[in-house]
Specification:
With about 280 residues, the protein is mainly α. It has one domain. The chain contains 13 helices and no strands. The chain has helices at about 5-20, 30-50, 60-80, 85-105, 115-130, 140-165, 170-180, 185-190, 195-205, 205-230, 235-240, 245-255, 260-280. Helix 1 runs antiparallel to helix 10, helix 4 packs antiparallel against helix 11 and helix 7 packs antiparallel against helix 10 (about 205-230). The chain is globular, with a radius of gyration of 18 Å. The mean pLDDT is about 85.
Length: about 280
């Protein structure tokens, strides 16, 4: 049986897949990411008013993670411009648990048992096979996906170390870190102008609304992950989180009527088996 924490992380994975599905139809990824960031930043601004300041030891991680998250957002937006990223992106989600486990071992001196190591490997391998099942991935697409995966791993390790220095103030840590998302609309306006940000509110209200809703779901999803890393191994938490790719496949099958081949079902079973290993 999965622990209570593991169950919440799996729920966070479902939330992560849900907001990705919500944003699936939005063509302007930069605009969508910006409005999603605005929703996250607004919620964070409200929360920081009611929570205590994190301890001094946590601030270097808060600042570093906040900045890396912005780099991740920009990298992801740029990577989405590559036509084959839809196929290669699971490589990013699959590679990040392995990178997180390595980073946690190097910088947080974490160790994991053989069964959990097997679970992480199964989840990563199953997710990457989802990307490779549809055909060959170009070198540029794979490089873009691995770059995204590296940024995911960097901010995950930083947050795992940072939240453990807060003496249980995971909410305060999360809110202050997400305050850096105010930089996204600043970047957008600097690149495209104010009108490009506000005009879509009238021209495409549904797309803006889905982006705002996606931001709310996103902050809940990653907030759970940060909370879980207070006591859970970073590699394990990261691997459970990345099962969101499998949830996305299932959502696509159930609600979008997308076909799933036998190989994709097998990959999903491998990921599920890996999650069971992490729960033992």
């Amino acid at each position: 049986m999965l622990s209570y924490t593991g169950g919440l992380v799996l729920f966070a994975a479902l939330l992560h897949a849900t907001w990705n599905a919500m944003l699936h139809g939005n063509r302007d990824r930069f605009l969508s990411m910006t409005w999603m960031s605005i929703a996250i930043a607004v919620v964070s601004t409200v929360v920081v008013v009611f929570v205590p300041l994190p301890p001094d030891a946590a601030w270097p991680c808060i600042i570093a993670s906040g900045l890396v998250h912005i780099v991740y957002n920009v990298t992801l937006v740029r990577a989405y411009r590559r036509g084959d990223l839809a196929q290669a992106y699971p490589i990013a989600r699959g590679s990040s648990p392995l990178l997180v486990a390595l980073g946690a071992a190097l910088f947080a001196h974490e160790t994991i048992g053989p069964l959990h190591a097997l679970g992480i490997a199964m989840i990563s391998g199953g997710i990457i096979s989802l990307a490779l099942e549809g055909g060959s991935v170009s070198r540029s697409g794979a490089l873009a996906a691995l770059t995204v995966g590296a940024t995911i791993a960097v901010y995950t390790v930083i947050d795992g170390i940072g939240v453990r220095s807060t003496s249980g103030q995971a909410l305060a840590y999360t809110a202050w870190m997400f305050m850096f998302y105010w930089l996204m609309p600043v970047l957008f306006v600097a690149m495209r102008g104010v009108d490009a940000l506000w005009t879509p509110i009238r021209a495409a209200p549904l797309a803006i609304g889905s982006s705002l809703a996606g931001g709310l779901v996103s902050i809940a999803a990653y907030g759970i992950v940060i909370w879980a890393m207070q006591s859970g191994a970073m590699g394990t938490v990261s691997a459970l989180r990345e099962t969101s790719v499998v949830f996305a496949v299932l959502i696509g099958r159930t609600f979008l009527r997308e076909a799933i081949s036998g190989k994709r079902w097998l990959a999903c079973v491998i990921v599920a088996a890996g999650a069971i290993c992490l729960g033992l």
